[in-house]
Amino acid sequence: MSICQIKQMEIKVSVIIPTLNRRELIMRALDSVVSQTYPIHEIIVVDNGSTDNTIPMLSENYPFVKILKEKRLGVSSARNAGIHAAKGDWLALLDSDDAWHTTKIERQLDCYSSIGKDYRLIHTSEIWYKNGKLLNQKKTHKKLGGNIFSECVRLCCISPSSSLIRRDIFSDVGYFDEELPACEDYDFWLRLSCREEVLFVDEPLTIKYGGHKDQLSKKYWGMDRFRVTALEKIINQGKLTEDQFNIAFQSLLLRLRIIHEGAKKRKNIKIEKMYWEKIQNWKEFSWKRKY
């Protein structure tokens, strides 16, 4: 057994899967966890108020899974509940509609053990399916490692399902924002990537499935509204470097203008006024910051 393998075996991994009425889909996710070549310390499913007999199915077919029940409080609340309950050194997030390659956790820990540098987040490349068809990813969606704050500002460039996170990072950057109904992962990656580098395994070890009706991107209009909130938060914290501030601020103004123009075209006077005022307030903030 190599030194890397010995180091790996000392690491306990907890898997956290939030779910809501995905009785059939979560079986695929769980089977991919059970099939991992690296031994998983515990699997935690956080049921967010399912009404489709998800819990009885889990109890019957996956009796080794720890089930946490909560009211329908959203994916952030479910992830946070799983994080607090987990006993592992590293926490692997998996959405209930996604799955992993059998070597996903092993490859992440192997890269971590051999890299000679301390990282607290490891993510992987992905394969995408939509309505059963393989999707070709655009260059803009290419994943990266290292200092990726600017990429995280531009778009959500880390998938929760691909991430393996050392548990001590949450005490430093906080948990998933339960006030955000969507883009909570975008918000979390901003807070993380402005502080430290991440490790990237350039192998398609995470399998993402899209196209089903209950995806958050289909539930809410104007997803940029939530990214605006995340950018406002990270700027208001006052901990960004000058370069990071400029990147975040320009992205914030761009998104505000897009929402404002969209509201103007739809003749939504209330939203148009709200975002016009936001634009002016942030311009004033930037001016005062300079002078």
Structure write-up:
- By secondary structure, this protein is of the alpha/beta class.
- It folds into two domains: 3-215, Alpha-Beta Complex (Spore Coat Polysaccharide Biosynthesis Protein SpsA, Chain A); 224-290.
- The chain has helices at 3-9, 23-34, 54-61, 75-85, 104-115, 149-154, 169-173, 184-193, 216-219, 224-236, 242-265, 269-290, and strands at residues 13-19, 42-47, 66-69, 90-93, 99-100, 121-130, 133-135, 164-166, 199-210.
- Strands 1, 2, 3, 4, 5, 6, 7, 8 and 9 form a nine-stranded mixed sheet that branches.
- α11 runs antiparallel to α12 (269-290).
- The chain is globular and about 60 Å long.
- The model has no long low-confidence stretch (mean pLDDT 92).
Provide a short characterization of the protein structure.
With 291 residues, this protein is of the alpha/beta class. The chain is globular and about 60 Å long.
Quick tags:
291 residues, 9-stranded mixed beta sheet, 2 domains, Spore Coat Polysaccharide Biosynthesis Protein SpsA, Chain A
Annotate the secondary structure layout.
Elements (H helix, E strand, L loop, with lengths): L2 H7 L3 E7 L3 H12 L7 E6 L6 H8 L4 E4 L5 H11 L4 E4 L5 E2 L3 H12 L5 E10 L2 E3 L13 H6 L9 E3 L2 H5 L10 H10 L5 E12 L5 H4 L4 H13 L5 H24 L3 H22 L1
Parallel strand pairs: 1-2, 1-4, 2-3, 6-9
Antiparallel strand pairs: 4-8, 5-9, 6-7, 6-8
Helix pairs in contact: 1-5, 8-10, 10-11, 11-12
CATH architecture tag of the largest domain: Alpha-Beta Complex
Number of helices: 12
Determine and state the CATH class of the largest domain: Alpha Beta
Average pLDDT figure: 92
Uncertain segments of ≥5 residues (pLDDT<50)?
A: none
* Percentage of residues assigned to helices: 40-55%
Count of beta strands? 9
Largest beta-sheet characterization: 9 strands, mixed
Number of domains: 2
Assess the beta-strand content as a share of residues.
15-25%
* Backbone structural class: alpha/beta
Please state the overall shape, judged from the principal axes of the Cα atoms. Answer: globular
N-to-C order of helices and strands? HEHEHEHEEHEEHEHHEHHHH
Give the C-alpha Rg.
Answer: 20 Å
The CATH superfamily of the largest domain is identified as Spore Coat Polysaccharide Biosynthesis Protein SpsA, Chain A
